[in-house]
Amino acid sequence: MEIIKKLVRLATLLVAVCILSFTLVYQSPVDPVSAYIGADMLLVGQDQRQQIAEYWGLDRSGPEQFLRWSGALLQGDFGTSMIYRKPVAEVIGEKFIASVALMSVAWVLSGVIGFILGVWAAYKRDTIIDRLIKWYCYTLASTPTFWMGLLLLMVFAVWLQWFPVGMGAPAGVLAADVTIWDRIKHLILPALTLSIIGIAPVALHTRQKLIDVLSSDYVLFAKARGESGVTIIRRHGIRNVAIPALTLQFASFSELFGGAVLAEAVFSYPGLGQASVEAGLRGDVPLLLGIVIFSTVFVFVGNLLADISYRLLDPRIRKGDSM
């Protein structure tokens, strides 16, 4: 029953997202035909503009366009990208491979570093270390992703020249000649941008949870038995704060995806984020709607994984389901 409820929620969410996204795109001031023509606008006559609109189905009314698009979508056809001249599903698949590498590295780094900082801050509560970690987290929590990306770009790519300025591979090099080390070098700065921004929520959440655990009665009883601070954190603290931290990290997929869009735009990284920006600016309606649907499913899966992990790791949740 729980799986059916989840599927119904996903279907309802997708229907609402499709209707809202199509309405917003249709009401957008960007003319898809003019954006498609681009710099050759003066060379294209009215008849050619009409032919382009007929070819892409843009000469029809809004409801008719939506019915045609949604009908094809139900058959698994996301349409054809006006920018890449390829099926939208194929474009999303290619871009997602680059984005998933970026988001995976950032997700792991922010989770591990944030958890360690949170435990350390709680263990050193009200000391200079705790205040420094809180200051660091509060500062990062109010820092825009694009600003952090520009800062890292200026320092490490322009001034120090330790890393490439942007893109996913060296410019002018054939794809067959690009090495794994080249791709890693181009991945480091965007991944660091996302990781640094994502540390603050995990660290602050872990710190507060661990402080609550250390103030509990069973920890006071453990202290009365002679257990030391490090032993208490290892035996009672980490075990109780790891599950909430993991759940929070899985639930952060929406922030991770939104941050990846900005980071990829700053570093011209060829992922889904850059593709969504290009699709919005150049009026590629099929690609933009396809990315919106894909991102919705991506965030829903993240929340679902958080729910599943919580049930697997916490026996109290499983007992509650079985009752």
UniProtKB/TrEMBL annotation:
The lineage of its organism: Bacteria, Bacillati, Bacillota, Desulfuribacillia, Desulfuribacillales. GO terms for biological process: transmembrane transport. The keyword Transmembrane applies. It comes from the Bacteria. One of its GO terms (cellular component) is plasma membrane. This is ABC transporter permease. Residues 96-306 form the ABC transmembrane type-1 domain. PROSITE patterns: ABC_TM1. Keywords: Cell membrane, Membrane, Transmembrane, Transmembrane helix, Transport. InterPro entries: MetI-like, MetI-like_sf. PANTHER family: DIPEPTIDE TRANSPORT SYSTEM PERMEASE PROTEIN DPPB-RELATED. Belongs to the binding-protein-dependent transport system permease family. It is a multi-pass membrane protein. The keyword Nuclease does not apply. Coiled coil: none annotated. Pfam families: BPD_transp_1 (PF00528). It comes from Desulfuribacillus alkaliarsenatis. It is found in: Cell membrane. The chain crosses the membrane at residues 96-123, 135-160, 187-204, 241-267, 287-313.
